[in-house]
Amino acid sequence: MSPDLNALAIFALVAEERNFRAAAERIGVTRSAVSQTIRRLEETLGIALVQRTTRSVRLTEAGERLYADAAPALAGMQAAIEAAGNLGDRPRGRLTLAVSSIAESFLSGPLLASFTEQFPDVTLHVTVTDEEFDIVAEGYDAGVRLGEVIAQDMIAVPVSGDQRQLAVASPAYLEKSGTPAHPRDLAGHRCIGWRAGPHLAPYRWEFAENGKELEVAVAETITTTDMALMVRLAVAGAGITFGMEESFRREIDRGELVPVLEDFSPRFPGFYLYYPTRRNMAPKLRALIDHLRLAQRPG
Question: For a designed S-S bond to 173, which of 100, 128, 191, 237 qualifies (C-beta 3.0 to 4.6 A apart)?
């Protein structure tokens, strides 16, 4: 049976004070409690650690060896505990986030830049990934995903308004190939698809008609794992592509891309920051949540 850390800590106090009573006073217990703890530790180890007299305590050879080996480790643990406790007074330390690549408003720059400016003691580590995994098991503080794919046991805070997915194409492509009037018409068009990874299925082209999901088979002429390339290909007239409206907003505003099939593209809840629990939340994460909520307020 291994000795518990509390017993080792009390032994270290006895070794420092060379007196049971002084050690007991430092931790606010009785001399008898300290004596019993040392006796149980000796029984567990099967060897005497101290030699007691009426006035003082002397360590045996085994006691000297144990104290020499254990004291640095105990001091290190105490320092670690104090350092962790110090993180509770203000936002600081490393904050790790796993963020979907299509969370354009969150990743646009100003939101995170203003956060790090306001909280300079927080080091932000952002992994942009579309892989689905357990953020807790992988060591992340929080993640950002579409609300519909977040596990129900997570706490979720909105970081964007409602979203919609759009099919878009360049004016030149539509002039040459015509504008589809219904999602089924996509079968007669060149299409550009996106996939999160080379071994993953392409992103689904999802539409709705009369409040019901509409399944459409799209034969993609080009697929890519690079969303920026997908957008550039569409601008260049390579075909119709599909994705989050935010991904195309700049090109739409400049007239380089034109939305099609908008009547079949309903809005849905957008992106959320999610994390496992509200209990004992680190100040760095609380600061980010408050920052995001403030940014969502109108005006």
Answer: 237
